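Comment thread on ticket #2218

A.B. wrote:
> Attaching the input chain for the structure job we discussed in standup.
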Amino acid sequence: MLKDGLLTVKDNQITRSRQMMAVAVALPVHDIYSYSIPAHLAAQAGVGKRVLVPFGRRSVTGYLIGPAHDSTPPEIKHILDVLDDQALFPESMLPFFEWIASYYMYPLGQVITTALPAGLNLFDVTLLTVSQAGIQAITTASLAPLEARILQALAKGTATTKQLQKRIGQPFSWALIHQMQKRGWILVDRQIKGGRIRPKTIRWVTVNDTAPPSKRISAQRQTILDLLHSKGDQSVATLKSHIRTAPSLIRAMEKAGLVSSYEKAVYRDPFGDPIEADTPPDLTTEQAHALETITPRLGKGFGTIVLAGVTGSGKTEVYLQITQAALDLGLNTVVLVPEIALISQTERRFRARFGDTVAVLHSGLSQGERYDQWQRIVSGKTRVAIGARSCIFAPFAQVGLIIVDEEHDTAYKQEGGLTYNARDLAVVRARQHGALVVLGSATPSIQSWYNVTIGKYGAATLHRRVNDKPLPAIQTVDLSQGRDDRGIRRYITLPLQNALQQTLDAGNQALIFLNRRGFAAFPICTDCGQPLRCKNCDISLTLHKKINAFRCHYCGFSKPATSACPTCGAKKIKLLGMGTEKIQETLMQLFPDARVARMDRDTMTRKGSIVKLLKDLKHRHIDILVGTQMVVKGHDFPGITLVGVICADLSLNFPDFRAGEQTFQLLAQVAGRAGRGDQPGKVILQTFNPDHFSILAAKDQDFLAFFDREIGFRKSLGYPPLTRMIALRISGKDAQQTADQAQRLGDRCRELLIAGGPYKGTVEVMGPIEAPIARIAGQFRWQIIVKSADTGRLHRFVRQLNGGAGSAFGKRHVRVIVDVDPFFLM
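C.D. wrote:
> Ran it. Output below, let me know if you need it in another format.
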């Protein structure tokens, strides 16, 4: 019976009142579940807190999202525990999470899990152990082959179900485990694990004023009491700095009743060296005009403005002054940058201006540091959050300004799990909060600038660099003229080598860009002509000379550099192709006195490595920096006067309709690293396609010319931003099963496109077809692209294709992933 929002349940003839709450569990299920709150937990329960709930045979983490809509569920289960003292996210974020779950067709509980700091959730693990009776049964009982293998595997030690399946090399059913348990052969135990991240506490000491005076007290104890009386409560660590034996003295003083100790939460500090405060510089005329365009919109409701400014035009200073205006109005600000490598630079600029009101959120922090930064935001102790794409989930109750720097960058698109685009979510969250979004870039995305041309977004532009510094002079070198060149001249042309020598002679720095890491990207057997391929992926291995191994850049598989050809057994492997490691070694040979460093994913893995490299570059401890696209994204290197692009065509060869856009953006961005200091800059752009319009537009730094040409192609082919796309990615370990499921899914698509139906003529289906890289990490891959100019109809089509939000596509051993607004089509 429902009475005043409470459900009355008879249990063993005792009537109890329990409130029903809706819970989104952290599992791949789309439904929301109703649980009752036991009386002893009712006071702790609140929206935004984690709870431990029974789910089937397991206990899992869930999130309280409000009162249950289903007040009389068929089976009432009770919340086992409330895991948080304070809510992890404000209730105002729930509509945001629900929109994400609906648009990206992803379970709400897993959306919230994605948003929260990692390492929080609890889960139970089933542990299987062989009993003494089970050991005897191995030799005495008549066992089925699978039973014998299970017992023999468990005789080697306790295992989880996953570990056991790996040991025996085949799946087994729970019914079989249950049967073996009933026979007394196996012991089944469930343990709650996870939840590694907790608040950090330190021990503090306070004096007991009510303690009876002691006639006899040592000088050291008296010193401790004097410190506590004069300075108030102190941490044990602080007292230890005065008296080395303070910890043991304090324990004795507690027993005597002189002092008491308690635990106090502290934040783990992710910041580096302290930063001196700065003062805003004088603005250029264009910066001032941009601020006049943007700041009046603050606090006046939802709006989106694209800040298009050439490299070096001072966009960051505009961000800082907009943020100051937002803070003056009492508005919280979220600042997104595409790469962790950029956060250090941006964070320092913002901390110098706004001090301790700045928090950072990104995966480069330890789990504890990230948790603490999250708590600073949710508790209202900070007003500005800076981070990579996951910072869009910063738990402000209300947001007034969201800045997306380098908004064109594909790093804002999450590829695994919840495939969200942080730039798009910035616009959605701003709309829900009535906030202003500023999308900044020197090379705006086609999507964003198209929205400017149709009046959906506003625009502010910066055409000139700060202090009227000139844009770098760009020289193209046609690599097709040197096809017969051998050795280093194939990738370090004479114009580039001469320009490097002149730069070094002048005491300046150079940046060499190649968007491919490793030493040799195409090792091939000289006997049989077969390339060395990854055993798990349809891709060539890349030699990494520093670790002396061939490595796959997709799944991480590696084999020693001394390995023979797997096809014919020959050991003569020719190292074709190139990567940043090879370029670095070549430059060290060409310029033995130069200090050459490398910035790519291989060298920037250790915590603090990015900050150290940027400091070395700033202090002129590096003469030549070789890097991948990590180096092009918004970094300010005043000492770099020369940029060399080894091969401008790599991204042009991708089978992707965005290949031209990505090529233009990469080249224009990397060229913009040159000449940002007092010396003019120069760019040597090596290419096999000097007349391609993407190359020409990048050379002229002319985004509008590129946009006008590119948008014409998109219109004629019906590609985004004129339409929306959803990719259905089909993958499985069995090639035939995967292909069959792809064909069945394709057949179902065609059934929905029947003449006279709601989708005929409005939804287009391309595929099924094998993915360009047909196998990655042992998974065979197919894809279907669905597109339409009608976003609502496109989503309805895919939901109908899936047979409802809670169902699954296809067979158990073949996965179908829905990627809304896909970026990666390989």
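A.B. wrote:
> Thanks. Noting for the ticket: The chain has six domains: 2-87, 124-194, 285-468, 473-517+578-714, 520-577, 724-820.
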